[in-house]
Amino acid sequence: MHLGRRSVAFGLPLAAFGLCIAPVHAVPGVHRFSQVLMGTQMDLTLQGADRAAVAAAAQAAFAEMTRLANMMSRYRSTSALNAINLMAGLQPVSVPPELLQVLLMARRAAHASGGDFDPTVGSLRDWNFDPANVSIPSAQRVSQQLSLVGHKDLLIDERAGTAYLSRRGMRLDLGGIAKLPILQAGMRQLHRHGVADAMINGGGDVLVAGQLNGQPWRVGLRDPRQPERLIGAVSLNHGFVAASGDYERFVIHQGRRLHHILDPKTGYPTRGPRGVVLIADDLNAINGLGAAIMVAGAAAGRARVTKVPNLDALIVDADGSVWCSPGMATRLA
Fold first, then answer.
1. pTM: predicted TM-score of the whole model, two decimal places
2. What is the mean pLDDT of the chain?
């Protein structure tokens, strides 16, 4: 997963465009747990009277999220995802049901976006935005690898439980779509262990349930243009706040910001919006859409948002202008 590490605080808003750092004051019954996962800091803020029981719930949630992250990581040579990559162009691969569901979700998102979201963007494998190991491929390499990008060549057999990349050299990257299902799986574990009031934050993507001290959870949206200030904060008792942006992992090369969200139609980092925040209760309505909007551009993004029921959105365009859907504007009022 290509996600930058961030810091977190509770009591003051968590920010989807980068997290606000604030002092954490002791609150009876509120417990925080953190673990590095998917290349970022995963933070749980849980409310419950029995700390030992809450800690056991947190441990179960982290264990489940770790299991799924390892299964779906393209950076682990032994992952189930990489088994598909290794057998590209050779034969279908049996995959675990959790991975199969994410692949089906990725295929739906690709079709719905007209290919603006594409899980085979992993074929563009020479890009690396790690400051310690930056890699910028030549135009020739981009062109060669771009020819292997194509979501229609991801073949899934639900009945057989298999997935297949039809051309040798193709690679999947689920970094743009696997994290929210993994957070959801973590929340299910918390509920199974009796924790009803919880916030899971994973590098700016947030899932909440219940309340914090009898009040809705507060999630702050930090301005990607000026990271020291907030655009605003939203309150919710249930659902996802998902962020995509060009500020998470990037390098400046020849005066241009190059970042980790790649356009599957050009092979290069997107040049549209600076950031997108989406809020929804339904995972299927939101997952993969942020990356697709980063590729498609702000105008297309606005049009797509208006067609999805119960979806609130904020888009910061390349020129710094901010657009909010009516629901988001109400949340931020």
1. 0.90
2. 88
